[in-house]
Write the structure tokens for this entry.
Amino acid sequence: MKKELLPSILLTIVSIVLLAWVYPAIVWGIAQFAPNKGEGFVIKGKDNKDYYENIGQNFTEDKYFWSRPSAVSYNAAGSGGSNKGTDNPDYLLQVQARIDTFMAHNPGINKRDIPSDLVTASGSGLDPHISVQGAKIQIKRIAGSRGLTVVQVAAIVKTHIEAPMFGMGPERINVLQLNIDLDKMKY
């Protein structure tokens, strides 16, 4: 029994030291070289509330650009996808409900024109970005809700287009930044 117990205790102690102290210290040290020292990027909203620009937010009012849906209700403490396959009946009903809601708030839009990022959750459930097409398809609704012209809203969308990260992937728009700047506009 001593033969098995002593190595088990030793392995437990070594694992605790490595995984609870050494590894987190290394990650923290690397984060000190990252922008904002790994603390995330905080943006002040019009309500003087702090928001993290790198975590998706839930926008449902017609005067705002809607974010990508979240499988975790935008809870950063527990990121993750739905783990439902694309042929899962519950998943298909959920996506159809999102399509129906989007079309009800954006009359005149054809179902086939809705970008998939507006009706499907990302793998983390916290994606703060939408596609450029996802923003453009919402311009008419937002212009009408805010009493702005389509040209004014399109212009602010254009200023928020981010280039692909490391030159790979599609252009994207941070929804939180866009909505905060919309709130700052005079209309």
Observations:
- The chain has two domains: 1-35, 40-184.
- The chain has a mean pLDDT of 90.
- Helices lie at 2-31, 89-105, 132-136, 139-146, 150-159, 175-184.
- The longest helix spans residues 2-31.
